[in-house]
């Protein structure tokens, strides 16, 4: 039980002397022999505190909103506006054709790979008899190149 003068208590708590006087007039802080019982005064002030002030961080110890689990209105509004701006940018890029659905891209890539594989695996069946009859390496090469180009052309058409 530390008894302090009103001025000392105000200095200790970071208040003005006038604020301490106001607390005394409201009977939140009680005097004992003209002095403030600091422990009783602090408890009484906590009991009478506005709920909004209880969630504000302590000014004497700097902390971030993430540390004490609270976010003030301005920070929340800033976060909301930043999120809305990012969403608007994504929507614009999607409508502008700069973004596409990842699942659709994967599906298209799978279908393209399947088509190339099937086309290339079909080459031996189509060319075996022709290539077996050819003795000129240049003709064999030309036949292979033409068939491979046909498979790739078919892919590009889709």
Salient structural properties:
single chain; 158 residues; mainly alpha; 8 helices; 71% helix; 4% strand
Number of helices: 8
Helix content percent band: over 70%
Low-confidence stretches: none
Q: Distance between the terminal alpha carbons, to the nearest Å?
A: 86 Å
Integer-rounded radius of gyration? 40 Å
Description:
The protein is mostly helical and 158 residues long. The protein has a domain at 102-157. Helix content is 71%, strand content 4%. The chain has helices at 6-13, 17-25, 38-47, 51-55, 65-68, 73-95, 102-133, 137-157, and strands at 3-4, 31-32, 35-37. It has a three-stranded antiparallel beta sheet. β2 and β3 (35-37) form a beta hairpin. The longest helix has 32 residues, at 102-133. The N and C termini lie far apart (86 Å). 4% of the residues are buried.
Write the layout of secondary structure elements.
Layout: E1 3-4, H1 6-13, H2 17-25, E2 31-32, E3 35-37, H3 38-47, H4 51-55, H5 65-68, H6 73-95, H7 102-133, H8 137-157
Antiparallel strand pairs: 1-3, 2-3
Helix pairs in contact: 1-2, 7-8
Organism: Endozoicomonas euniceicola
Protein name: Terminase small subunit
């Amino acid at each position: 039980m530390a008894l302090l003068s009103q001025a000392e208590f105000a200095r200790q708590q970071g208040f003005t002397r006038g604020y301490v006087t106001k607390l005394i007039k409201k009977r939140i802080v009680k005097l004992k022999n003209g002095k403030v019982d600091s422990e009783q005064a602090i408890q009484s002030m906590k009991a009478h505190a506005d709920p909004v002030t209880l969630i504000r961080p302590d000014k004497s110890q700097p902390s971030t909103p993430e540390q004490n689990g609270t976010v003030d209105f301005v920070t929340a509004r800033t976060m909301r506006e930043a999120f809305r701006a990012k969403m608007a940018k994504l929507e614009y890029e999607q409508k502008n054709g700069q973004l596409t659905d990842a699942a659709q891209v994967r599906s298209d890539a799978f279908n393209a790979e399947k088509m190339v594989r099937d086309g290339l695996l079909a080459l031996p069946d189509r060319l075996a008899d022709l290539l077996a009859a050819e003795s000129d390496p240049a003709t064999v090469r030309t036949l292979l190149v033409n068939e491979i180009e046909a498979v790739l052309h078919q892919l590009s058409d889709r």
